[in-house]
Amino acid sequence: IRGKLSERRIEMIKQKNLSSDVRAMLYGMVVGNVYFVNLAVGDDNATGESFKRSVKTVQQAVLKTVSASHDYVLVFGSGTQTKAVTSSVTHLHIIGGGPMSATAGRGCAFTGMATTTNITSSGVFFELAGIQHIGSATDAVSVSSTGANAYIHHNTFVGSTTASDLTRVLSTGSYATIANNIFSLCKLAIGVAGADSVIEGNVIQDVDVAAKGINLTANTADRCIIRNNIINLSGGTGDVGVTII
């Protein structure tokens, strides 16, 4: 009898019987609140707390997040943003999704605003992934991260031949990881000014004149690692694959 009771106690604490929050703690993963964005048909007056109640702009969802909570903003659909995304929240995750809304490219298609930095984060531990960033025909930085430990990965950035050298990913915080992104027609794909950063596995394809691939933009970019990137700037004169200042 004692053995059967012990087996029953073990059965009661199997992971499948635990709540999702407790399982997340066991795996060392913290997930806070989750907010949904539908760039095509969302409504900024909605709560954003479910896919059916998605907001329309990423900024509206980001305003609902709080620091150190590991809040997630899940972005679906495609559309032009009318609000620049600005956040100082720590441990913020903005992730593009695809299954609920079919779009071209990786995840959702986020068309940026002209002459405005489209996504700016000053919080530490900022993650951005799975979004197709469609650049404006005029100058605009796609993503600017100033906090430490940013992780920008598995995005697609589509630039414009008429834009100038403004960067598609600009990271000035230390310990950033910029990995496995695709850049097309981006005159300056990646700019890094923070120390101890890693730039790896990116594909940079540009056919413009005087294009710059990866640029360590300041002498504070110490001890950075650049490895396993594909940089093809074959279409223009004066192209530079990697610049170390």
Following the backbone from N to C, one meets helices and strands in this order, namely HHEHEEEEEEEEEEEEEEEEEEEEE
Shape: globular
Oligomeric nature of the chains: single chain
Percentage of β-strand residues? 25-35%
Low-confidence stretches: 100-105
Arithmetic mean pLDDT: 84
Distance between the termini: 74 Å
Strands, total number: 22
- The percent of residues in helical segments reads under 10%
Structural class assignment: mainly beta
What is the count of DSSP helices, taking H or I runs of 4+ residues? Answer: 3
Q: Could you tell me the radius of gyration in angstroms? A: 20 Å
Spatial strand order of the main sheet: 1-2-5-8-11-14-17-20
Sheet with the most strands, sense and barrel status: 8 strands, parallel
Structure description:
The strands form three sheets. An eight-stranded parallel beta sheet has the order 1-2-5-8-11-14-17-20. The chain has a seven-stranded parallel beta sheet with strand order 3-6-9-12-15-18-21, with no helix packed on it. Strands 4-7-10-13-16-19-22 form a seven-stranded parallel beta sheet. The chain has three helices and 22 strands. The protein is 9% helix and 33% strand. The protein starts with a helix and ends with a strand. It is mostly beta strands and 245 residues long.
Note the topology:
Elements: H1 2-12, H2 20-26, E1 34-38, H3 58-62, E2 72-76, E3 78-80, E4 85-87, E5 93-96, E6 108-111, E7 119-121, E8 127-129, E9 131-134, E10 143-145, E11 151-153, E12 156-158, E13 167-171, E14 177-179, E15 182-184, E16 188-192, E17 198-200, E18 203-205, E19 212-216, E20 225-227, E21 230-232, E22 240-244
Parallel strand pairs: 1-2, 2-5, 3-6, 4-7, 5-8, 6-9, 7-10, 8-11, 9-12, 10-13, 11-14, 12-15, 13-16, 14-17, 15-18, 16-19, 17-20, 18-21, 19-22
